[in-house]
Structure of Aspartate carbamoyltransferase:
Amino acid sequence: MRHLTSIRELTRESAIALLDNAQELAQVGDREVKKLPALRGKTVVNLFFENSTRTRISFEIAAKRLSADVINVSAESSSVSKGESLKDTAQTLEALGADAIVLRHPMSGAPKILAAQGWTKASIVNAGDGSHEHPTQALLDALTLRQVAASSTDLAGLRVLIVGDILHSRVARSNILLLNLLGANVEICGPEALVPSGIEELGASISHSFDQALERNPDAVMMLRIQKERMDGSYFESPAAYGRDWSLNSERLSKLRLNTKILHPGPMNRGLEISAEAADDSRSLVLRQVANGVAVRMAVLHNCLSSGGES
Ligand code: CP
């Protein structure tokens, strides 16, 4: 593949190949194997129009572990703040030698437009676009689940419950698509106002009671951050009311089976959608998700920059 803008660009086979590759690359960075020369001479630009900790830093580490040069650009510190367009920014970055542009953008579809318009020859990797998709997050979540699942290939039969603010979640959309591709069963659970109509068409059942969903004993519960910054305030009025119905709190944690895994893409609102006790529980895979982000992003960058220009 030359670009990765959506999970829809992957087949089951190509997704499994990326996960296999990431599993192998997870060893790079260990004491004995610090770096691979695979992307020596390539330049990766992290172009972030929204804040990020995990995604930006792990793309940087991933590129460096493959010996690429890395430049980090944030919108506030670039000429974007003077009104420069995405097209002109991308073409400027290409003129400066960018082979890949890792793009986080508030507009849904921005990476796809950049890849499809042919404005730049650089590979485009979506690092999260609006409420649309976050494909590398879904890949790292799948890798994390695969490491604890019965199968070392796909996630066939795994029952994953995704809870909370689905409406604004690019993580949820990419996860529904990828989990389906890998054979998992996905249930989406959230308040009616935060579950968009039609999302079931991506491949998920929908429910509106967290407590009832937990009684169905999912294999994994993925909690989502409530994205107050994308709300106008009309829905989210009371953290206490949200927490009562939608938090993975101590009481709900005590009802989880011993082998049910807890995921959260981060950043977590501790005490809101997830209690500190749940976030730090032995069943929580949150930090393993973060660590797997480096390996998955290495696999994606390597695949995009070694494709010889195929789309
Ligand atoms: N999960 C995620 O995208 O986190 P960041 O916003 O910190 O990159």
Summary: Strands lie at 43-48, 69-74, 100-105, 123-129, 159-163, 185-189, 205-207, 220-223, 261-263. Residues 286-305 form the longest helix (20 residues). The chain is about 35% helix and 15% strand. The chain has two domains: 3-133+290-307, 135-288.
